[in-house]
Write a structure and sequence with these properties.
The complex is a heterotetramer, with two copies of chain A (about 375 residues) and two copies of chain B (about 400 residues). Chain A has about 375 residues and is an alpha+beta fold. A four-stranded mixed sheet of chain A has the order 1-4-5-8. Chain B has eleven helices and ten strands. In chain B, α1 runs parallel beside α4, α5 runs antiparallel to α7 and α7 runs parallel beside α9. Classes of the chains: A alpha+beta (about 375), B alpha+beta (about 400). At the A-B interface, α10, α11 and α12 of A face α9, α10 and α11 of B. Chains B, C: It comes from Variovorax defluvii. Chains B, C: Keywords: FAD, Flavoprotein, Oxidoreductase.
């Protein structure tokens, strides 16, 4: 069936996809203002799963749609146009591609189908309280014990881990080695005894991130991905890949749409002061989109991404942050109110949400490698500036 | 001339010493009686603050700091008020000192010296009543506008009947009454005292991001007696404008205190947090960013230094409004910048609710928007500059 | 479909290979024939450039890169033109390739296919004539405006009589004639060919900051024959707008080349200049600043990548204008930023005229303003966005 | 007579000063757009000198006006209002106060009267081609030879040294010492054999700065200021003092006036996009003025300036630079033209100068300690951030 999709012309393909969205995607979840939890978005994911559309980018042999790049982009664009929510997608975007590339046959057959079926929801266990920007200084350790590892430690900053059934994590398996060299990549069942997950309330009042505590958690050695002590290379590969994802112009484009709506509701469409700033940001996003396109082409051609992909994450998140600042400015006296604020002078039902963007912009420049880390990477690895 | 000069120098020194002592006792009180955990605990409660703590402020005499002596106050002026505002803000005390004592208190005082004004001020000073001002008429205002249009008052035999809706009334949930601006059938404006218990008053509260309260105040044919007309015409306009400007400057003082607190937390973190084997404060980019924040904080302090001083002297209203908008523009923008960069310095932990930085960030967001944000006040400043004659907005 | 796809892929690869070869030979020629010392020496000379070097460009066939084959050109399109523009800009060759070959040449070509157009293009291709466009009617324009208003042409028995003043005509001192936009008595607009030798033409040159030439062109009842009316009405408007947009994009290509040159000089200096016992490029703040410039340069390159490609395809004029303004907005702002920061990186030496960086900075200033600066083009971009129907500005 | 001035009330004092300007200051030199050369401004300086007004801030005993601080500020303000040009003032602002504080009696009586008489024009010899930001790494050396030093080396970045009769410079007198410790402060006659001065043409086409070459130049040891090898301390003191000077809001206020004029001539007075930026910059300058006032008060009270004065220079020059950027933006298509550009659509004689501000903003953030150096000073010495 995916074969059929690939052979459609662009417009027919988009029409097919839109028709599916119209039929199955819940109207009330269109253009959600916050990240949705698994319980909210599960029915939709299951509809995708039944259709065989859960993993548009995976090869057909592993249950994906195997869409060719242009189709994949069209698929994503149509999702965005329809306002389709993001599902908990660590399994689809990170673990799946990782296992296809580095996993054993056993790992692939154990995990991939369950990701597609919505049975396994994955969370990431990278950061630790004392290993933030300096990720390689992590201390969570996995000590060999028979055919298992015994894992002890604490992870933090794990997105929506309260919904996760599984965790992929980095743990130290060799203490004496140089800090990057003693790290392994493990797959862990979140229901294993000794694991506790605690959502972290954030300053926006949300609970998008969690702490995960590991106390003598048994993890079979079969759950090691790649070489023992070779986890850092895999993690870096994932982080590089993540940066193209985190550098997508989507977040900025979405926020710009919110600013334009606010301008319309607040009568600021002809205010040159506001429009000058907005236009600058629109061009920042347009040129980000062009830069993003270059990296997407690179991926399409099957080339590995280099450290220069950090530019995307940097410019993308900082542009988003500037857009959020503009939104906060132009919503004037309502800036202190979270949630939807009714538009002024309105019989209309229209509302403006100010603070979600502002608060979302804060972690955006921190996680996935802070802006400072990205600039260090670019200065050292791309510009070859001296140490 | 020389003698006068020496005299005024002596009185200036004396005044400075008085302020120093006031600052010492205020900071001592605030840090003892209002640790951050208190502010944290009051977030999202019904009033958003603690009436018993308000009584303690009354006890200290601070609710009477500005009011004239004939109303039981101490008429100490804004240099003194700034000291109290600063000490309370540093501890994030959520009690509505600026909304009630400064904004509402001064709006009442400047409205006239009649018996009702005296009574209201006595009640404020004595802690019997907490008044706040209700003047905004848009759910979201993008320009400073103090002129009432949609809230109207009409005279009838039994007094005045007031109808309309006010928005963004901060600390309304715990208020005992409202100073309400209203337009009169003559087209001129007025200020009324509207007790919260009046029939037809509906307070629809919602939580601000710092866990405080901001309400929509619906007035549906609310009847008040004649004596509740606090002022009208140019007097009402001037009273509201001046009290608004004074509240702006005092809010800027709060924002400066919060800037200091966030900056101090950041410096502390920069000095102590180790990554890559070094304190992160040794990284030059973070150092330079900290310097840029230092400059913003010092610009705020320098601007407020001259503006607070001028507030205690009679001056042209237009200049006072310019000063006030200038203060808020700098204080708010600098505070938001310091808040954002402080979170960035702290990384993940700075985004967690359990870390105290977030409390300051949340208050920053609320105060920077209240009475108009930096963008709005830059525009007000410019508009006042351009008015060469005639009425001001 | 699959076959077609493969074909177009093959032709795309072939084209890419052609461009690669063109780039190689252009860079080879430019670096050999136009070392920076040549550009330095031509600053402030009468023409601001070297007509003999122009002849060498003719020799290379580059003046005919865009023109149709029937006029002796090669119709290679803008992807190829961009390669030449880039190579010349990198060496700061001051010859008016974009003003003459792109802007004037395309304005003539798009105006029509009559004998006079062919003749003018042949002369341009063959190096006999260097035409430039005169369209600005303000000494300082703060908004992009291509509509002639004050320069007027009137028909009379002997042809047309043109009067009025054009400003900021770049490279006018060496031009053999001008493509002049003029309004007609009917209210519609037109493009005329005005040879520099015509009676009533006065060229008042002044030096631009890069030592080039920019003139005020006074037309005092200049008489031209009927056949010099190149186009009128919507055709004239479209020709001027399209040629203007194409010139904008090619100027952006020049600015990108200059960005690259300045950035490379800066990286070199950062790596080699030692202060405090370390190369200054090891200081984190300078590293991060360099990264921010890298991003600006790459955003320019990415934007131009898609925009130059679209220029060779027919598209909606409004989209082309949006693209062109977007290109200039990014390229100019990024170049000015890189220029300023490069001087800062270099310190004192970066401010001296004898160091080559200054040559690039001066050209940056000139090119970023020519045809409208970043601020103006952001506004044009936004205005084109907002036009949903009807005529565009 | 200066006593009399100090006893006047503010308005009378200002009136007196203005009357003098009106009588003696050449009309054609009011509000000059560029720094004037000595030949242009000499007649005016001589008028000041004859009146005894050459050095408003010096004590009366050394021939100054001995103005009290408030009067001194009023004097400066009136100069600015009248558009009085800056004279070559290194002698008045730097050498004079330096000798009053650190000089010998002989040095004072030799140099101070001649500065006041306009006989001696001083230039600064600090920076070297390889000692810019890292000033203490300077290499110009002064070797003892009998009662003289023999000076060899090269200085650069010396403002208007082509007009100077004397040079104060830093030279290394002890090579083996730690780099800050072997430096001495010398006064040098610019006509000494072996000195050559070469103006450096800058990218704006001006020649405000010079290189100075020293080839076996004899300098009497009597021309040493302060302790031998103790020059670094004196230089730092001068640099700190210079920073309050370089951090004056004057430059920004002057540039803002140019922007406002341009707005009027270009019809941009009601353009909200331009006005938003302009207002921001006006507030930046207003708050700079308040901060400047705090440091001026400190000087008035006789307190030494600390490293925090670097804030002034940083904010002042960077604000000026942003104003220059705005001017360049709003003058649109004329941005490439140096000098005065006639205003559009005008019978008026009005003109706008765009590039002078833009080019002047470049060295402003470089000399007197670059912005990077100022931030380093503030981070280390004011914020005590770790090294």
């Amino acid at each position: 069936m995916s074969q059929d999709l690939n052979s459609l012309d662009d417009e027919s393909f988009r029409r097919t996809v839109r028709a599916f969205f119209a039929e199955y995607y819940p109207e009330e979840l269109r253009f959600p203002k916050q990240r949705l939890r698994w319980a909210e978005v599960k029915p939709w994911f299951m509809a995708l799963s039944r259709k065989g559309w859960a993993a548009p980018g995976w090869p057909v042999q592993y249950g994906g749609m195997g869409l060719e790049p242009a189709k994949l982009i069209a698929f994503i664009e149509e999702q965005e146009k329809w306002g389709v929510a993001r599902t908990p997608d660590m399994g689809l975007t990170m673990v799946g591609p990782l296992l296809i590339r580095h996993g054993t046959e056993a790992q692939r057959s154990q995990y991939l189908p369950r990701i597609l079926a919505g049975e396994h929801i994955w969370a990431q266990g990278y950061s630790e309280p004392n290993a933030g920007s300096d990720l390689a200084s992590l201390r969570t350790e996995a000590v060999e014990d028979g055919s298992d590892f015994i894992v002890n430690g604490q992870k933090t900053w794990a997105t929506l881990a309260q919904d996760a059934t599984h965790i992929f994590l980095l743990a130290r398996t060799e203490k004496s080695a140089k800090k990057q060299e003693g790290i392994s990549f493990l797959l862990v069942d979140a229901t294993s005894p000794g694991i506790s997950v605690r959502p972290i309330r954030n300053i926006a009042g949300g609970e998008d991130f969690c702490e995960i505590f590991f106390e003598n958690v048994r993890v079979p050695q079969a759950n090691l991905v790649g070489e023992r002590n070779g986890g850092w290379k895999i993690a870096k590969e994932l982080l590089t890949f993540e940066r193209i994802f985190l550098g997508s112009p989507k977040q900025s484009q979405y926020a710009l749409a919110r600013v334009r709506e606010a301008c319309a509701l607040l009568g600021l469409e002809r205010d040159a002061g506001v429009q000058d700033r907005l236009t600058q940001l629109e061009l920042d996003a347009a040129d980000l989109n062009a830069l993003y396109g270059r990296f997407v082409q690179q991926v399409k051609r099957g080339e590995a991404l280099g450290p220069d992909v950090s530019m995307l994450k940097l410019w993308g998140t900082e542009t988003f942050s500037r857009i959020a600042d503009l939104l906060l400015d132009i919503t004037g006296t309502a800036g202190g109110l979270p949630g939807d604020i009714p538009a002024p002078a309105g019989d209309s039902e229209e509302a403006i949400n100010v603070l979600t963007s502002f608060y979302n912009a804060r972690p955006a420049t921190i996680y996935g490698g802070s802006s400072e880390i990205q600039r260090n990477i670019l200065a050292g690895q791309v510009l070859s500036l001296p140490n | 001339m020389t003698a006068m000069h020496a005299d005024s120098e002596a009185s200036r020194l004396e005044k400075a010493e008085d302020l120093r002592q006031l600052r010492e006792s205020a900071e001592d009180f605030a840090s003892r009686a209002s640790p951050l955990v208190r502010a944290r605990g009051l977030r999202g409660t019904a009033l958003g603050y603690d009436r018993a703590f308000w009584d303690a402020l009354v006890e200290q005499g601070w609710t009477g700091l500005l009011a004239p002596q004939e109303c039981g106050g101490f008429a100490q002026g804004f240099a003194a008020a700034a000291v109290i505002v600063d000490a309370l803000a540093m501890q994030l005390a959520p009690e509505p000192f600026v909304p009630a004592v400064v904004f509402a208190g001064r709006a009442i005082e400047l409205s006239g010296g009649g018996p009702v004004h005296a009574e209201l001020l006595q009640d404020l000073v004595g802690g019997k009543s907490i008044p706040v001002v209700a003047f905004e008429e848009q759910s979201i205002a993008t320009a400073v506008d103090l002129t009432p249009r949609t809230v109207r008052a009409e005279k009838f035999s039994g007094g005045w009947r007031i109808s309309g809706t006010k928005f963004n009334v901060r600390a309304a949930a715990g208020a005992d009454g409202f100073v309400v601006s209203a337009s009169l059938p003559t087209g001129s404006q007025s200020l009324f005292w509207v007790p919260v218990a009046s029939a037809g008053v509906a307070v629809e509260s919602r939580q601000t991001t710092d866990g405080g309260d901001s309400a929509t105040l619906a007035l549906d044919g609310v009847v008040v007696p004649d004596r509740h007309l606090l002022s009208q015409g140019s007097r009402a306009e001037e009273a509201l404008t001046r009290a608004f400007d004074e509240a702006l400057v005092m809010t800027s003082v709060e924002l400066l205190a919060i800037q200091r607190a966030m900056f101090a937390m950041s410096l502390d973190y920069l000095r102590n947090r180790v990554q890559f084997g070094r304190p992160i404060g040794s990284f030059q980019t973070l150092q330079h960013r900290a310097v840029d924040l230092l400059i913003q904080k010092e610009l705020t302090a320098a601007a407020l230094g001259e503006i607070v001083e001028r507030l205690d002297h009679e001056g042209a209203p237009r200049m006072r409004s310019r000063d006030a908008s200038r203060a808020k523009a700098r204080a708010a923008a600098a505070a938001v910048q310091i808040a954002k960069d402080s979170v960035q310095f702290h990384g993940a932990i700075g985004y967690t609710d359990e870390f105290d930085l977030g409390l300051y960030v949340q208050r920053t967001i609320v105060l920077s928007a209240w009475l108009g944000n930096a963008w709005m006040h830059r525009r007000r400043f410019a508009a006042l500059d351009n008015v060469t004659e005639g009425a001001q907005a």
